[in-house]
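WARN retry 2 of 3 for item q-0093 after timeout on previous attempt; input resubmitted unchanged.
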Amino acid sequence: MCYTYDVLVEQVLHYADFIAADGLLAIFFFVIGLDLMDELKNGDLRDAKHATLPAIAAFGGVIAPAVLYFALIHFNGLQLYESGWAIPTATDVAFSLAVLQIFKKKVKKGTHLFLLVLAVVDDIIGILIIAVAFSSNVNPFALLIEVGLLIAWALLVRQEKVIIPLAVIVAVGAWTAMFLANIHPTIAGVCLGIMVPAQRSAKLKKGLAITWSEFFTPICNRVVVPVFAVTAIITSIYELISAFSLPDHKIDPGVYHLPIIVAVALIVGKPLGILTFTWIAHHLTPLKLFHGLKTRDLFGVSCLGGIGFTVSFLVASLSFSDPLVVAFCRIGVVIGSVLSALIGFGIIKFTTRKC
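OK item q-0093 returned
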């Protein structure tokens, strides 16, 4: 009876994790796609001189943590876990901007914009990593159906009046086709989002992209992200309890290093990569930081880049098949993200104390 109960709990958590990570997060990525299109059309990303340097910094914030993770893994002889290199490369847009928002009136003009562009580009890179590194044995027939559904979606959302029920059916179909194509279905969310028109018209003061973003963002912040985070944490705790409660279950001692390695990669790798690439682009190229910002003004912001959470949790589950390894990696993400937030908060508060 106990065995049956354990199996039932495991199955429930498995399906809950699937619904949250593969289903609900598609809405999160859909909103990212919507915001990206609005920024490209109406926001600061439409000006290449504003977007280029933070975009370069974002690449640094992806490369450095991955290299640091890889180096620490090999230094400790843990090559078995090198496939988790992408876990510390993500920056959580919502959480990082939420911390910076506390100092909105005190930080220099342009700081918020720098972090916004950096986080958006970081998410785009993360999406590409998921699409390329964690998709295999692509089903060409399902992919062909996906293309057809995306074309139908693009035509549908460009109608003067969008038929919402039909849009929902096409969106669900696109998600299903992406899943059957063996590509992570959250990519469908991004594809759908970037196809929504963002241009304004005489009748519309706001484009459809930003209108839908304003509708779905509260849902993401209040439902999608919390449900995903809670599900991921509960699943991880259950896997840890299960592993340690079975005396005959052999645990590789190397797995205990993963939380520290992931946390260090986020706490150290993120700001190191962001600041290094920013300094190089600022001093060795014609590119300049806007609004009179200096590299030293970005110490605190670069630390906030180490807040991973959502995408890092997702990448952890995609990197390893062993739930216990995923659990340890997620612990590292939590530790690294919380400490990054605290360090970034402390630095920004110290540097703005006289304002």
